[in-house]
Structure formats: C-alpha cells, structure tokens
Design goal:
Number of helices of chain A: 5
Order of helices and strands of chain A: HHEHHEEH
Strand order of the largest sheet of chain A: 1-3-2
CATH architecture of one domain in chain A: Orthogonal Bundle
Largest interface: A-B, 56 and 56 residues
Largest sheet of chain A: 3 strands, antiparallel
Strand content of chain A: 5-15%
CATH topology of one domain in chain A: Arc Repressor Mutant, subunit A
Oligomer: homodimer
Structural class of chain A: alpha+beta
DNA sequence: ATATTATATAATTGTATACTGATATGTTTA
DNA sequence: TAAACATATCAGTATACAATTATATAATAT
C-alpha cells in the first residue's frame, strides 16, 4: 500500500509528463526552445489551429511548463525553466536508444 | 508546415513521454529503480491488480522502457536503459521548481 | 465609438485508454 | 498427470482527452 504522500508525488509527476505526452504540446515546447514566441508565431510554426494552440498553451501554462507575458496585443510564451529543455534533450537520448521499440508500440492498453 | 520526419520524431517522443504519463506506470518504473522485480513483487509494491500491472508492463515493454526475462515461473522486469532513471530524476527536479503550478493544474483539455 | 487584430473560452463530438472481473496460458513441483 | 502458482489476455464500462466550431474578451487603430 502506497503512502498518500507518495501517491501525490507520483500523480504530480504523471501530470508533468502528461504535459509532454501530446504531439501538439511537444511541437509548441520545441518551438519555444529557440526563445519566446507569441501565439500567432506559435500557430504559424506548429500549424495548429489558433484555438487548439491556445488550448494547449493554457494547459502548459497551468502546468507550469511555460509562462506568458502580454506585450501590447501579443502574448509571449517562453519555457519556464531550463530543465524543461533538458528533459526534451534527455528524451531524445533515450529515444535514440529505444526508438525501434517505441516505434513498434502501437499497442494501447490491451488492444 | 512541419516536415514529415519532424512529425514522426515528435510523435515518437510524445509516445515515449506517454509511457511516463500514467501514475500506475510511474509506480512500476519507480519500483524498478531499485533493481529487477518480478510481477508478483511489482503487484505487492504498487498495489495494482495483477491484470492491471501486467497490462501496463506490456505497454512499458512494447515501448522499450523495460525489458523482461523469464526465470522459472517468474518474469523479471528491469529498466531498459539508465537514462530512463535519469529522466525520472530530472522530472523530480523540474517538479521541485514548478510543483505548485502543476498541482494547481486541475484543468484537463478545455474543462 | 467602431472596426480590426490577437488571444481565450465554451460546447460538442469522437476516440483513446484505464480499470475491473473473468478466464486462459504457461511453468514448476509432487 | 494433476495441482498450484505466476502471468497474460479478453470483454465491458467509465472516464479522459483532443479537435472543431462558434463565440467572447482584450488591445489597438481609425
């Protein structure tokens, strides 16, 4: 039986990873690796619809992975912490190792 | 417009992170930080039902995050790469920075 | 004030996936 | 071989999530 504190810590971590676990959000995060971008720029780079981008940005902001600053009529987003970039880099390294396995992972749940 | 190769790389990475994005799977991975464990041990430590654990283990195995070796009637699972552990550690560090933000992220999608 | 541009939210819908319980398969020992 | 134990799979249900469309809010310009 897990302690409540452990359950909470694990849920937090799962939530953090969930922020990275969607291709649209990853596209946004990688777009922000080069520096702050406003929503229009993000929409252009990622090819997401504006509401969709906004929606994912809300999630990323609420989860603390990005921060937003309004400048005039633009809202500029940036990564909230350097370690967010580190996580993306480290993920690349793991991927290089296990890429084939992940690529073949079409399996979801027991399907 | 993203190039196809970029889309594939991003989808791969999203899939990798998805392996980490569920509390049950995270519990299993953290249990394996201490070394190889068989399914019964994993079930005991994580308090998951045996079919549920088996299901998540299948996913983790297919995604290349863990490897399995049968020994007698036991199947021992272990992390497939040291960097999997590194990712978990780095996630802890990011969490320490943005924990409050993530904790307050009760928002799912547009809810 | 009105129009225009930029961004955010709401409601809907389809799909993915996690969990439970039941059952099947595989492995060892008697 | 039979019994006991370990692990995997299947079917059904409930929930979570993403994409879309429409609309609302905020800021600037005319």
């Amino acid at each position: 039986m897990l302690l409540t504190a452990e359950i909470n810590a694990i849920s937090l971590k799962a939530k953090l990873f969930r922020g990275f676990s969607d291709p649209s959000r990853l596209s946004i995060l990688e777009c922000l690796l080069d520096g702050p971008r406003n929503v229009s720029e993000i929409v252009t780079v990622t090819d997401l619809s504006q509401p969709n981008a906004s929606n994912h940005l809300s999630c990323l902001r609420d989860c603390g992975l990005v921060t937003a600053v309004q400048e005039g009529r633009y809202v500029y987003y940036r990564l909230s912490d350097d370690r967010v970039a580190n996580l993306l880099t480290l993920a690349d390294e793991v991927l290089a190792e296990v890429a084939r396995g992940v690529y073949e992972c079409t399996r979801v749940s027991q399907a």
